[in-house]
Amino acid sequence: MSRPLLGCIADDFTGATDLANNLVRAGMRAVQTIGVPGQALDIAADAVVVALKSRTLPPQEAVAQSLGALRWLQAQGVRQVYFKYCSTFDSTERGNIGPVADALLDALHPDGDGFTIACPALPENGRTVFRGHLFAGDALLSESGMQHHPLTPMTDPNLVRVLQRQTRRKVGLVPYDVVARGPDAIRARFAALRAEGVGIAIVDAISNEDLLRLGPALAGLPLVTAGSGVAIGLPQNWRDDGSLRPSGKADRLPQPVGLQAVLSGSCSAATNAQVRHFRAAGRPCFALDPLALASGAQGLDEALAWAQRQLARQDELGPLLIHATAEPDAVRAVQAELGVERAGALVEQAMAALAHGLIARGVRQLVVAGGETSGAVVQALGIAQMAIGPQIDPGVPWTAVRSPLCPQDTLHLALKSGNFGTTDFFDKAFARLLEEAAR
User: How do 30-34 and 47-51 pair as beta strands?
Assistant: First the structure.
């Protein structure tokens, strides 16, 4: 069996599927694992994505997990390593993007001469980098709603400044005018920055064409750090050297079965809009109240009993939604009462238990909104590996998985980053799966 070419380390589960989705669309056979596997890869793949739940861990824990993933990927013989983070560069003043990038560079370059890039651009989803500043649509990141993120508020859009606060390496910039001139100009800028002692270079990109120009300049670089967008430019490097061959229809999944549900723990602006749209369409919705859960005034049995009634009428009512999604003021009130960590953990634990209960009640098509929520759900369902299927919206594919909770059935799972997806995403997701099944 051939060895994978690209080994990826993703700092959350939705980000991992986002990355794997782009690699599959670019013609690579991709496998996603949940956590670091305990054994060698036993499936032929051109790329393997190790999904961690490390984005909001203390930096030393995120580093330890990432180095564990690196060691496993090296044992599989990968030629290039890709550290994937969110296109909104989610991190705190302490990390974790800088500390993990430092640790991976140290491990891959024990001589201390390491160099890599940082580029969260994902133009398909409106994430662009210009003059080192990150934009979400037409707004600077700090004015996009991300400044209100409950765990990783982003108040500075200047990525050079943000990353410099997290890394001991000097951070530089590959500006847009260089990127626009193509791979040779980008390589020359890399060489100039390295001569100046720069260890990590922020790279501007405002379109997919920029990412495709960047791709050839990254050939042979041991480590790439980026959002999922940079992945679209890498497969051509291996096609050019003959390592990558066409894989046919890489995103075909088994036929869907069973009932449909959505679990949403994200409080992003995009997910809030999706929840409002779903509710306005008359779909069945149940809102979790973290304060009521904490006090015992609301129980998960109540939510599951409600879900049972809706599932019995799904032909009439359509998919159901259970959510802890709330507007920023409500989130801040909960955090003030419970504390940030306890509030987040409470929602994650609730969503994990609800996923378990929904599967027991016949749900086999499940959409999960929010990176931390998705990680909790995947772990609760005992999922070890995911096959990547058709894209719903940029960055969000359907996947097919096996769970010990329903060992005889395939479970179709869509893990959506909180900031991704159009307003009608939840309905669109199930329609997309039905469309694929009819092909």
Answer: parallel
